[in-house]
Amino acid sequence: VQLQASGGGLVQAGGSLGLSCAASGSFLRINRMGWYRQAPGKEREMVARITSGGSTDYADSVKGRFAISRDNAENTVSLRMNSLKPEDTAVYYCNADVHRILTGTLVGMTYWGKGTLVTVSS
C-alpha cells in the first residue's frame, strides 16, 4: 500500500493551503485516514482524522481552521488549512488504517506517506 501526498509549501500567516493524499495498492478496505504533523524538535502529533463513515476528529489547535475530507471511491483524503499560523509549520504526514488479506487472514495495518513540508511565515 502506498500513500502519495501532494500540496504543502510556503504561505504567509493567515493564508490557506491544501493537502491531498491518494492511497493505492492491494487492500480490502481503508478504515480511518488522517493527517499528522511533526515540527522541528517535537513529536509527531495527530492533526485530523476521518473514518470511512465520515466521522472526524481534530486536534484542539486546529479546530475551526482545518477541515478534513475524503473520497472513498477514489481512496483519497484531503486537508484544507485556513488561517494558518507560524506554529502550524511542520512536516505533514498522511496516514491510513487499512484491512488487507494476507495468507488468507484479515489483518489491519497502518501505513504512512512521505511527509510534505508546510511552512507558515510570520
How many beta-strand runs? 11
Average pLDDT confidence is 96
Q: What amount of the residues lies in strands?
A: over 45%
The shape is elongated
From N to C, what is the helix and strand string?
A: EEEEEEEEEEE
Structural class: mainly beta
Q: Tally the helices: what do you get?
A: 0
- List unreliable stretches of 5+ residues: none
Radius of gyration: 15 Å
Distance between the termini: 37 Å
Portion in helices: under 10%
- Note the main sheet: 7 strands, mixed
Structure characterization notes:
The protein is mainly β. Helices cover 0% and strands 62% of the residues. It is built from no helices and 11 strands. The strands form 2 sheets. Strands 2, 4, 5, 6, 9, 10 and 11 form a 7-stranded mixed beta sheet that branches. It has a 4-stranded antiparallel beta sheet with strand order 1-3-8-7, with no helix packed on it. A hairpin with a 5-residue loop joins strand 5 (45-50) and strand 6 (56-58). The radius of gyration is 15 Å and the shape is elongated. The N and C termini lie far apart (37 Å). 30% of the residues are buried. The model has no long low-confidence stretch (mean pLDDT 96).
In short:
This protein has 122 residues and is mainly β. Helices cover 0% and strands 62% of the residues.
List its salient traits.
elongated, 122 residues, four-stranded antiparallel beta sheet, seven-stranded mixed beta sheet, 0% helix, mainly beta
